[in-house]
Write a structure and sequence with these properties.
Layout lengths: L1 H10 L1 H8 L7 H9 L6 E5 L5 H7 L4 E6 L2 H10 L8 E5 L12 E7 L5 H4 L4 H15 E15 L9 H12 L4 E6 L2 E2 L3 H12 L1 H7 L6 E2 L1 E9 L1
Parallel strand pairs: 1-2, 1-4, 2-3, 4-5
Antiparallel strand pairs: 5-9, 6-9, 7-8
Helix pairs in contact: 1-2, 2-9, 9-10
Length: 233
């Protein structure tokens, strides 16, 4: 799946945006975020922003959101979607998760969504070093007392949280046991416009096996559990 996701991020950003636009129709993620950290007036740096899914939410309350991603195609799609919020307090730029072009001690909140966990498939032998490097970069950018927040999947097609792979379970345990992060989980189910769209987009991103196992006949809802990890520095 390593090349599968990279190809999507590089060449099919528009399809990816169609998929993520269908997740969390009840707004559980936004409610959880503002419960963990009041966003009003914060300077935010976002890692792995993709098509601006989180950026759009954050911009509604933050003072400023500086969003970065390694893939130009994802940022191009984000630049099309972000103006739909009516907000102008955001910026987009190329940035690697371990070498972010952001000033030290410049953010009240640093956040990533569905980005850091890719190290487990892309760098399986060096995952710990990669994880430490990205967290160190978050800490460098944070103001004293600022918060780092991580968002990752806890199971597509599942109604109760479970890391999708043993590798991801290892990473999540590392964040909690060795890095001092707190964790909570929420449901962020996908709700599609039609059964045909559900089938198309689920297979596009998650593959045939998952679609066959978890997408119920005639269903337009695909259950999803999402984990949120956070820590003040």
């Amino acid at each position: 799946m390593r090349d599968h996701f990279r190809q999507i991020y590089r060449h099919q950003a528009d399809m990816y945006e169609r998929l993520v636009a269908r997740e969390d129709q009840h707004g559980n993620l936004f409610e959880a975020l503002i419960d963990i950290v009041p966003l009003h007036g914060l300077d935010v740096v976002e890692f792995g922003a993709g098509t601006g899914r989180l950026t759009r939410l954050l911009s509604l309350m933050a003072r400023r959101v500086s969003a970065f991603d390694i893939e130009p195609a994802m940022l191009a799609e984000a630049s099309l979607m972000l103006p739909t919020t009516g907000m102008s307090n955001w910026s987009l730029a190329i940035g690697d998760n371990a070498r972010m072009p952001a000033a030290s001690n410049s953010a009240d909140l640093v956040i990533e969504g569905w980005s850091f966990a890719h190290i487990m498939e892309w760098h399986p032998q060096q995952w710990r070093e990669r994880a430490d490097a990205m967290l160190a970069e978050m800490r460098r950018i944070l103001k004293p007392g600022g918060m780092a927040l991580l968002i990752e999947t806890l199971g597509t097609g599942r109604r109760q949280p479970q890391a999708p792979t043993p590798e991801l379970a290892t990473l999540y345990h590392y964040w909690e046991s060795s890095c001092g992060f707190n964790m909570r989980w929420i449901r962020t189910d996908f709700q599609f416009a039609s059964r045909s769209e559900a089938d198309e987009l689920t297979r596009f991103f998650f593959g045939d096996a998952l679609a066959d196992e978890f997408l119920a006949p005639r269903s337009v809802i695909l259950p999803e559990c999402t984990g949120i990890w956070w820590r003040r520095f």
